[in-house]
Amino acid sequence: MAQRVYASKNPYTHELLETYEFTSPEELENTINASQLAFQSFSKLSFQARAEKIRLLGSLIRERKNHLARLMTIEMGKPITHSISEILKCAECCDYYAENAEKLLHPITYDLPDGRSYVRFEPVGPLLVIMPFNFPYWTPFKAVVPHLMSGNTIILKHDENMPQVSAAIDQITTDAGLEHEFKSVRLTIEQIGQVIADKRVQGVHITGSVRAGRSVAEIAGRNLKKCVLELGGSDPFIVLRDCNIKNAAKSAVIRRLNACGQVCIAPKRFIIEEPVYDEFYHELIQELENWKFGDPLNEATKLGPLAREDILTNIAGQVERSVNMGAQVVYGGRVLSSTQLEPTVMINITQDMPVMKEETFGPVFPLYKVGSVEEAIEVANNTEYGLGATIYTVDVQRAEEEIIPKIQAGMIFINDVTKSLVPVPFGGIKNSGLGRELGEIGIREFTVMKTVFVKS
């Protein structure tokens, strides 16, 4: 019997809830074969027929939101009210792509002097989708729903910490009539490589670390498979001297402490112009006073634990190494349990410190003072990542015309925090990944773009 390594553990109570075996070689073979057979019929359905299943999926998600949210909360620690919001966003995603996929994949036409030409978009086949723990429903659904609507079938490898969530996703998609069009499996690293290399599997979509993305891309490249990589981030949060400081500080806290800071697109480096640095600092501290740890199943709780003990070990180590290099912790910073680090505000920051150079997956706020917009841009770009960026300013025109063209990021938000929006392409540059999710670009990522020419 296979070693039982997929563990469902409550990060708040530290209770081991359940363990699961890896998918056996026989089960995996049956899953891939069933996915390929399902593709042959599913890809031939009309958009309307596929949309019926996706609309039903959205309805089932809403009906079961409390059950689904509770599983998320007990497996990764997200406060229950945040979990419910995530569930409802998944249902919104289903509704949007059921309604709009046909329009998003409508052929592109070209007028030519000697005929007409157009590009049509056709599905490619079974896809392997590898997903993380931090948004255990949203990350799979935002990746999967557009690809299902384009006619592909899905094999999901979810995070090893989320087996109950993974099973719930498998069940709800089956109940929506997608039993073989969508299937969840529990794979070893070796099995992941085997699935990517399998000739029946036509592409791979991963949300995860840079290291994992590189490994997946290497195997996909050797086998000439399309891949979409949504990887890490160290997003700059730029506060200019003319902005509403109170709004900026409130937004910074809300977004940074979402999922206890375990968000790839959360603001992680706070770059503040000198004239408003002190004011932003004080407003930030005041906002943080409203965020305390509690039982994530309690609706009043705003801040839950980190999902795993190793995540706390890593983020606490980054803070400690930065302090050893001269940084100062001016708020919080205490380790309260093996999965709880107090929201931590740090000053006297230099760009070579871990809290500025590395991705920080936890509730840490390094504050970096700059003397000008030009310096803010330089600091913002001084990272291997390029996922998102936030700019707070009253002068929106200046931001759009002079600052945004110089920021190295796939997504830039003005006077709001970076986030994923159901109709809008999502993704980064540099070590933050390749390709896009969502929107008309995301839904086309795993399609064959077939050019047709008809001579007049």
TrEMBL record:
Q: Which organism is it from?
A: Blepharisma stoltei
Lineage, broadest ranks: Eukaryota, Sar, Alveolata, Ciliophora, Postciliodesmatophora
- SUPFAM superfamilies xrefs: ALDH-like
Q: Which family does it belong to?
A: Belongs to the aldehyde dehydrogenase family.
Q: Name one GO molecular function term.
A: aldehyde dehydrogenase [NAD(P)+] activity
Residue span(s) of domain Aldehyde dehydrogenase:
5-452
PROSITE patterns membership: ALDEHYDE_DEHYDR_CYS
Q: What name does UniProt use for this protein?
A: Aldehyde dehydrogenase domain-containing protein
Task: Work out whether the entry's keyword set contains Signal.
Answer: no
Keyword annotations of the record:
NADP, Oxidoreductase
Q: Does the keyword Transport apply?
A: no
